[in-house]
């Protein structure tokens, strides 16, 4: 895993793309001078390694995130003064993709922090501290000849996109299962090369839960490693299913987090056998076997 | 306190020579976790002039059930519950690990208890824990300061201040005595925001109780003893004076202000339709920190500094060098940065560096 530079750094937004209900924010430390990044770039083709015109040049020392790692984001201007005079703390986001020094984040406006970040336009600046945390273990030795099953829900699909990139570049096949509330959110599936989609309202793909797709896949072939990220009830369902079928699973968790680097002890989840894990430094990706259950409390400041 | 306009930022505090006046608030920076997150850069660019540990208790504590955090207006309520490995775990595991990071010791041997009969302050071969530990004034924020004697390949050791808490004079005495034996611990900070098991009152909230407890435990250590005062009291000045009278070498303030938040969605129309107020925090209530409390901190630090003669460590909502300058101007010797480090882990170095300019400006006006 990469360690983060020991200081938050200012990134400049290079592109903003609406993806249904979501916003894809792309940012880099040194946007190419006079480049065409201002003209809005398309969401890159899945697995794309070709730099877009005007793509940012990686800053010296900028760390490349591993799939599953995250960054703490805040806007440089007007962070605060929203609802309840918030936001105050930075917000944690998984890297959804990282190409040529440009970081991609998937946002959903669900509170004063995410709203402010969603307001950012090209050329505006934001603070980023990252890459932080422990990501997915998805090398050949982690897979042991099993296939990778990527299971995502809602805005939690983000770290699975960069994971799919990494698996593709190492020649590993991955099956992607995604669940969304509705059609507007299901547009998030465009981050992936190929995905099976379920929606709560049946507007796109399977009418039902993504965990039903997972159960079908495991019935078909249980020689798999599951990589999952999404809302707590989905993760708990994935955890329980994988425990029952004895399939190894790695869960990317979300929790209320003040710092992102182990200082505040705020983002804990109960560890199987007692005590707590800090999601920021012991995770955010945690082996399902380390958890008794995934708690459903919504702890993250939005 | 250093004279305004001084060229260097070096400051003397309880016999410790510190490179600059900025330290961390207890429980707001975990150097061991930060080393995992930031790698070698943490030690190369360590931002604090001294490192204050999280609160250590006699027995290990898991901490409070989540949720532990609530973002409020320009602030943060936390209800962490002082998770720690316990005294034995801290001494056996954390001290050597901190020494590896250049905190609290000049070498591994300095983490060992001093030999029997040997004054702890004499330390080992390295300048651990002693007044000389900080070496010369280091350029704040710069890479690997030159100057004082350093462990091989690293900067001069950062003095370690160990924060402890006990629920009775007996418990506190055991904690102080144990820390006293370690040369790598430069000073001890006593967290008195803890209910006394014998009286039910927070030890630090009542001046006479605080005075009595300190009188009882003070002889157990020869190391500088800093009392971390609680702001959740009727008269913080009386508590500070009680700490001084009880033998404290310094006081630090302010700790977090008691605060609480209710679970959202509980009001009419919420899914639960439960009229009872449900606390959001797993621990029930918590403590408020961040910019929201800065003006309270300024008032309390000023009031205390005017009425005690021991040095004062001021803290509460500091985000910039100007905020730190305010606390120094009203009488603090050191300033601790806490919650702001959550937003930028190296902000203390920025504050220390910019404080130099603020100080020069102030000095030039004198």
Topology of helices and strands:
The complex is a heterodimer of chains A (302) and B (366).
Chain A: E1 9-19, E2 22-28, E3 70-75, E4 91-94, E5 97-99, E6 102-107, H1 112-118, E7 125-132, H2 140-143, E8 147-153, H3 158-169, E9 174-180, H4 183-186, E10 196-199, E11 206-207, H5 210-220, E12 224-229, H6 232-245, E13 249-252, E14 268-270, E15 276-278, H7 279-282, E16 285-287
Parallel strand pairs in A: 8-9, 8-12, 9-10, 10-11, 12-13
Antiparallel strand pairs in A: 1-2, 1-7, 2-6, 3-4, 3-7, 5-6, 13-16, 14-15
Helix pairs in contact in A: 5-6
Chain B: E1 11-13, E2 16-18, E3 22-24, H1 31-38, H2 40-44, E4 51-52, E5 69-72, E6 75-78, H3 86-100, E7 160-164, H4 169-180, E8 185-191, H5 207-217, E9 225-228, H6 236-245, E10 250-253, E11 257-259, E12 286-289, H7 294-307, E13 312-315, H8 321-329, E14 334-337, H9 340-343, H10 347-365
Parallel strand pairs in B: 3-14, 4-7, 7-8, 8-9, 9-10, 10-13, 13-14
Antiparallel strand pairs in B: 1-2, 5-6, 6-12, 11-12
Helix pairs in contact in B: 4-5, 5-6, 6-7, 8-10
């Amino acid at each position: 895993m990469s360690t983060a530079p020991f200081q938050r750094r200012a990134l400049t937004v290079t592109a903003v793309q609406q993806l249904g209900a979501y916003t894809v924010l792309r940012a880099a430390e040194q946007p190419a001078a006079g480049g065409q990044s201002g003209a809005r770039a398309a969401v890159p083709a899945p697995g794309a390694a070709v730099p877009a015109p005007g793509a940012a040049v990686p800053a010296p020392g900028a760390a490349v995130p591993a799939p599953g790692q995250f960054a703490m984001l805040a806007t440089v201007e007007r962070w605060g003064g929203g609802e309840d005079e918030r936001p105050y703390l930075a917000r944690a986001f998984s890297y959804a993709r990282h190409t040529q020094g440009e970081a991609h984040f998937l946002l959903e406006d669900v509170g004063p922090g995410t709203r402010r970040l969603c307001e950012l336009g090209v050329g505006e600046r934001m603070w980023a501290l990252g890459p932080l945390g422990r990501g997915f273990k998805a090398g050949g030795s982690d897979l042991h000849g099993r296939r990778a099953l990527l299971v995502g829900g809602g805005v939690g699909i983000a770290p699975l996109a960069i994971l799919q990139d990494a698996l593709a570049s190492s020649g590993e096949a991955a099956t992607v299962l995604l669940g969304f509330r509705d059609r507007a959110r299901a547009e998030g599936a465009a981050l992936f090369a190929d995905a099976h989609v379920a929606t709560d309202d049946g507007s796109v793909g399977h009418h039902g839960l993504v965990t039903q797709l997972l159960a079908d896949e495991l019935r078909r072939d249980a020689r798999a490693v599951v990589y999952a990220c999404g809302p707590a009830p989905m993760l708990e369902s994935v955890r329980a299913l994988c425990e029952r079928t004895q399939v190894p699973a790695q869960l990317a968790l979300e929790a209320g987090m003040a710092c992102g680097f182990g200082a505040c002890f705020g983002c804990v989840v109960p560890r199987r056998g007692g005590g707590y894990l800090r999601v920021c430094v012991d995770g955010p990706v945690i082996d399902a076997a380390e958890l008794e259950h995934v708690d459903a409390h919504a702890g993250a400041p939005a | 306190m250093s004279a305004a306009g001084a060229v260097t930022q070096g400051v003397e505090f309880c016999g410790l020579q510190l490179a600059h006046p900025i330290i961390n608030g207890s429980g707001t920076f975990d150097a061991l976790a930060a080393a995992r997150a930031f790698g070698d850069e943490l030690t190369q660019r360590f931002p604090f002039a001294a490192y204050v540990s999280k609160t250590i208790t006699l027995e290990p504590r898991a901490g409070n059930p989540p949720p532990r955090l609530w973002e409020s207006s320009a602030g943060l309520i936390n209800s962490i519950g002082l998770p720690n490995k316990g005294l034995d775990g801290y001494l056996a595991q954390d001290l050597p690990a901190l020494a590896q990071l250049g905190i609290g010791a000049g070498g591994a041997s300095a983490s060992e208890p001093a030999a029997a009969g040997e004054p702890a302050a004499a330390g080992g071969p390295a300048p651990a824990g002693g007044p000389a530990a900080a070496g010369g004034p280091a350029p704040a924020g710069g890479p690997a300061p030159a100057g004082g004697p350093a462990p091989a390949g690293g900067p001069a050791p950062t003095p370690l201040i160990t924060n402890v808490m006990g629920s009775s004079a007996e418990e506190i005495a055991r904690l102080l005595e144990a820390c006293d034996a370690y040369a790598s611990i430069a000073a001890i900070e006593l967290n008195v925001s803890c209910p006394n098991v014998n009286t039910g009152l927070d030890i630090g909230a009542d001046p006479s109780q605080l005075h009595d407890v300190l009188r009882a435990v003070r002889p157990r250590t020869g190391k500088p003893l800093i009392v971390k005062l609680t702001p959740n009291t009727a008269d913080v000045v009386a508590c500070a004076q009680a700490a001084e009278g009880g033998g404290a070498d310094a006081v630090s303030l302010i700790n977090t202000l008691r605060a609480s938040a209710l679970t959202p969605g509980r009001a009419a129309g919420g899914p639960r339709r439960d009229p009872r107020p449900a606390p959001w925090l797993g621990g029930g209530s918590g403590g408020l920190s961040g910019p929201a409390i800065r003006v309270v901190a300024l008032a309390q630090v000023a009031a205390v500094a005017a009425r005690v003669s021991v040095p004062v460590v001021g803290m509460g909502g500091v985000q910039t060098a100007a905020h730190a300058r305010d606390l120094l101007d009203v009488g603090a010797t050191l300033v601790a940065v806490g919650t702001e480090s959550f937003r930028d882990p190296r902000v203390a170095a920025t504050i220390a560096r910019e404080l130099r300019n603020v100080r020069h400006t102030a000095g030039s006006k004198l």
